[in-house]
Structure formats: structure tokens, C-alpha cells
Amino acid sequence: MAKELSAEQVRKRCDPSVFGCNSTGELEPMEGIIGQDRALSALRFGLNVAEAGFNIFVSGPAGTGRTTAIKSFLEALANERETPPDWCYVHNFHDAYCPRALKLPAGTGRNLQRDMKSLIADAQLSITLAFASKEYADQRTEITDGFNQKRETMFSELRKKAEDRGFLIQSTPVGLVFAPTSKGEPMSEEEYQKLSSEDQEELKRKREELTRELKGRITQLRSEENTVRKQLEDTDREVVRYSISHLFEELRNNYSQLPQVADYLNEVKQDVIENSEQFKSEPKAPDAEPLSAMQGPAGRQQSFWKYDINILVDNSELKGAPVILELNPTFSNLLGRIEKESQFGALYTDFTMIKSGSLHRANGGYLVVRVEDLLANFQSWEGLKRTLRDGKLVIEEIGERLGFMVTKSLRPEPIPLDIKVVVIGEPLFYYMLLRLDLEFKELFKVRADFDTWMDRTEANLSDYAAVICRLCEKENLKHLTSGALAKIIEHSSRLAGDQKKLSTLFADIADIIREAGFWAGEAGASLIEASHLEKAIEQRVYRSNLIQQRINEMIDKGMIMIDTEEEKVGQLNGLEVLDLGDFSFGKPARITASVGVGREGLIDIERESKLGGRLHSKGVMILNGYITEKYARDVPFSLSARLVFEQSYEEIEGDSASSAELYTLLSSLSGLPIKQSIAVTGSVNQRGEVQAIGGLNEKIEGFFEVCKARGLRGKEGVVIPQSNIRNLMLKEEVVEAVKAGRFHIYPVVTIDEGIGVLTGRKMGQRLADGSFESDSVNDRVQRRLTALAERLRDFTKGEEKDRSVNDKA
Questions:
Q1: Which of 626, 571, 574, 719 is nearest to 1 (CA)?
Q2: Which of 66, 528, 735, 769 is least crowded, fewest Cβ atoms below 10 Å from its Cβ?
């Protein structure tokens, strides 16, 4: 007979004195992660390996504090690293569609941006003053006056030569022409027609000679004009170069240690010299030429946009390496974007509209992102993989990446990538990506697995209390008394489902403490006491157990038939768990068995009706093996038995009821009644050994609630697997009932022990001749199976005799 458990065995208490304090207010708060040595070891390894591909996938269920803990861990590590550089985009004077990237020491980006604005403003002032100076005007006049005088002289000579030959030079819409004269006046058409043909030919010849000479003079003049224009342009350039050289030289000296900046300043200086016209006057007001806005950058020359510095990443206020937690990893938020502006229906863009993504801001440090968010956003996962694989950050339109975009856009210079990416997700995502994504294993070579349990040692209890102290101080909550600490430890073990473990689902623990703080405030207490924690736990259950109450009411009213008083053959109360997502509870379920003559063996009605899951069907098949091994070694297995969960209208899964089904079947075969006041849970193997199951506390408490509603008589109890004893963390009400002897919990190792609890009869040992002890359960079962086999044999002989008579007839 199994020995029932004591009240001390069904809930492991925590001694408040183990904390060495009266409240958490006396403790030193602990920062960091506790109970995750495996995960922290993997993190340290992955973050310290410099080679590519050693990014980290942090797996573990939600509520373990993964995200918060990882961010805190990374921030502590980032403080020890150097601050990464600033990154800026500047205009590419050789190809405006490919902006250049500048790498600058942290904080230098802002300085360069400010210095460039001052430089361009000073350059504009210097150039404007230079062009307005008397020296410049005199120099320009000297160049142009010589040319103008030469041009006047040339035209005077040509005019006199034309007059000597009887022509005047006239200006027409098609250019200069030579008109014949008569008595010093242009010849009329009538006068020209009166001339003889010889005189007309002579005039024509002279005009052609003069025209050829005019063309030659004009060609010479244009050549000289080009020379003058070039001299003026050279003069302008020299004036501009002279007026701005000291400005650029001073700025170049400030950035002499940065060759990229020096090269850029040289290009800016050359561009200013070549485009000095835009500096000659003050910029026009934006609305002075409204149509210029439609021309994009060309219409914005006066704003000097191409000399701006677009600071893509500004690390001026950062200490150490960056730690970026991206909560919305869309393609643009992750990889950056190129914005556009609309003016009068036209879209334009330039390098100043390039915006950074979280990968840019985390470059040189760490990026933390949830895998669920990555996979939910279109192209984000593919974009992240490509960036990690190529080792560079490319900003591009998503349509361009997909090949849908045909309009010309910017193609900014890629930025080298130096980053560690930490992806957080459920273990299911890790295994799916590992199986379905061929690149995943190469890019995320380190897995940091967060556990849901930690050992319940004295050292861990102290750390647990220190973490709770940190929570109270961080959120300005009331501190816990040592008694309340003991209660939260016990509740943590219940969440872990193990007397020797503590739950690392700190989100759930923190919620309980917050709720207990509310009830402490309602009671006017300065500290959270054990009673406040108990009330918080009770209220949390109360808010979610409406369905459980309705089911218990139906059981109490007899709508769901559960017997807890009598003894019946072939009937037993099994235990099952209903999971509603935020709340799980147990409830009893009547299991019955019917036995008759036949060859069908065990028939699982749940499976036949397609309400039995695969694991449940496997459990029933194991019963076949048990019966055959134990009772049908030498006789045919001549049995037709049906097992069913009564009043079950949904799928039944799991093998935790297989021992209950076997007890029911043995009762039906032996004819021995089973105590309905005792419920059963546990799976069984073919050797008759009772195996551990899950949801033990909920199952026991579910049956206890039903029995309590009908009035505990001191006979009620539950049979459980002995290997599940360490999982017992029953609520206080059940513990008190066990202590008072009004509720019993029997751990069993084998079916033999369990049948003794349920029937009060010994299972019976096998004797030397192969039979069992007289009138034991095994003996009664074997005799019943033998009788069924004989009846089947006699019935079969009768059928054969009748068939033979019919054949003769």
C-alpha cells in the first residue's frame, strides 16, 4: 500500500530567516541577470569574437526578462569600448547621384557642419566684396576697353572702306549687310534697276569682297572676344581664389589629420572658384522666383545646398559603443531611407535628404531586435542578412532592391559595417530559421538560450531577494517583508513546477509584487506582507477562473456527472488540465470501461470518434501491451473492451490518463469496485510503472475544489506518480486539508501500488506455477480473461458445428 504524503511534502516552505533581513529595504539591490549562466556565457563568447558571422540569437520564452536583461548587459559592455566615428554624407562634385561618405571622429561631424556653414558665408562675403572693389573694376575695364577700342577701330576702317567703294554698313535682323549708295544715300530699288547689267555685276562683286572681309574681321573679333572672355574668367577665378584661399587654408589646417576632409575641402574650393557667379550677389528670397523650386537642386543654387554636411550618425554625446533597441524594424527604419520633397507636383531629392537607420546608429556597437518583428516587416529580414553578409551598409529604395523602380535615384556610397546583432525570439523561431534559412547558420553562429528555471539554492535565494529589491527601488514600490519574500519564493517554485527550482519568468514575479503593493496600499501598510501577496495571487486567479467556476457548478448540480462518494466497478475519476492561455485549471473527468467477449482487444472510443490525439491513442495502445504481457502469455487474448471519457466533447491529448484507464479496465475485469473519492493521474508503460506527468498542481487542486464544494469527508484524495513529488507546490488551502487529514495524496511507483489504494485489495504476486495469489486482483483478472477465452472458444466451436451441419444439408 502506498504511503500518503504529509503536508510538508506537498509544498516546500521557505524560511524567512534565510534572507537575514526584516525587509528588502535592508538589502543591496543587484543589477544584471541571475540564473542564466549558460546564456551569459554564450553572450560573452559571441560578443568578444571579432570574426564575421558570430552574431547572437537569444532564445527563450517571453517573460524571462530577455530584452531588458540583454540591453542592460550590452550597455555595461559597451561602456568599456571606444566611441565609434561619426558618419556624414557630402555632395559628390564628380557625380551628384553618388553622394560621398565621410568618416569622422566622434563629435567632429557637428564641428565640420558648423565650420562649413561659416566658411560658405565668409566666402560669399569675401567674394562679394572682391567683385565690388575698385581694383577689380579697373582691372576688368582695362581688359574690356582694349577690346572695345579695337573693335571700334576695325569697324571704322571697314565702314570707310565700304564708303570708298560706294556702300554703307547696315544692321538688319539677319546681321550686318552692305547697301550700295547714291549721292551718299542708300540706293533705292528703282535706282538699282536703272543701272546697266555691267554696273550691277560690279556692285555685286564689290559687295562680295566686302562681305568676305567682314566675315574675316568678325571671325578675328570673335577669337579676340573669346580671349578677352577667358581673360575675364581667369581674372574672376584669380580674384575668387585670392579672396577665399586663406579661409580654406585655415579650415584645412583644422582638419589636417583627416585626409578625406582635406580632399573634400579642395573639391569645395575648386567648385566655388568655378561657380563664382552665384556668390556675386546676395541670395534671392525663396519666393522671388517661385518656378525655380520646380527645377530641384538647379533652382536652389543660391541656397548653396551642395556645400551642406548631412550628418548621418552623430556620436558627439555618446560614451562608449552604442546599444540600439529597434522596436519597429521596418526596412527603412533598419537600413535608412532617401526622402523626397514635393514642389508643385514634382519630386526631387539630394544627399541632404539621406536619413540613417538603426543599423547606422548601432554601427560600431550593438543592435538588439526581436525576430518576430523582423519577420513581420516586409524585406527587413532579407535586408539585415544581406547587410551582415556583405559587411557594408547600402541605403537604397525598397522598390529598387526588388527591381520595380525605374526612375533615377541617389546611390549613396556604402558605409563599412562593424556591428554585433542580437536577435531575440522564441526557441521555435530559432529551429525554424535553422531548418528553412540556409544563411541563418552562417550569420548567427552563437545561440544564447535563456532558461525558465534556476536552482533553489541559498545563494540564488539571496540573489533573488536582491533583484526584487532592485525592482522595488527602480519602480518606487513598497518593499517586501521577509515573510513576503518567503511567499514570493514559494510562488516562484510553483511557477517553475518544481520544489527545487525557481522561476526565471521575472515578468510574472514583478506583476505579482506590483499587485501586492496595490493591496498593501489599500490596507495602509508601509511594507508588503505575506497576506498582501496571498491576496494578489488569489485575486489574479479570481479574475480569470470564471470558466472553472461554471464547470464546478455544473458538476455540483449533476449536469456533469462526477461521483466522489461511492465505489463502482469499471469507473474512475481521471484528472485533466484546461489551458485558457492566461489561466490553467484542473478538473475531474469520469472514465469508464466495458468488457465483453470478442477479439477486438482494447477499443479507444475517443480515437474512434476522432476526439483522441496521437499521444492519447499511444497511451491506450500501451495498455494492450500491459494486459498481454501480464495475463495473456499462455492463453489467447480474447477480449473486447471499450474505454471512454464520459461527457467529453473536445479533443483529448496526452497520456497522463493512461494509468487511470488501466485502473478502470482492471476494475471491470476483476469485478472489484473503485473508490470514487480518489482521483488518479499519471501515465503508465508496458511494465506497469507509473510515469511523471505535467500540470500536477492544477489537477490536484481541481479535484479538491469539487470535493470541497460537496463537503470533505476525510476520504478524498489523489493518486499521483511518485516521481512527481518534487513538482508539488499546492496552494495553502490544500496543504491545510492534507495536514488535517481531510484530503490525501498517494504517490505510487507501480500500478500494483495504485490498485491497492483504489480498491483496498492486493494486486497479488505471481506464483511458481504461473498463477497469481488466490483472490487477488491479478488472480481475478486472469480468471476473467481465461473465462472469456473459453466462452469465445465454445462459441466458435458451436459456430463451426452449425456450419458443418449446414454444409451436409
A1: 719
A2: 769
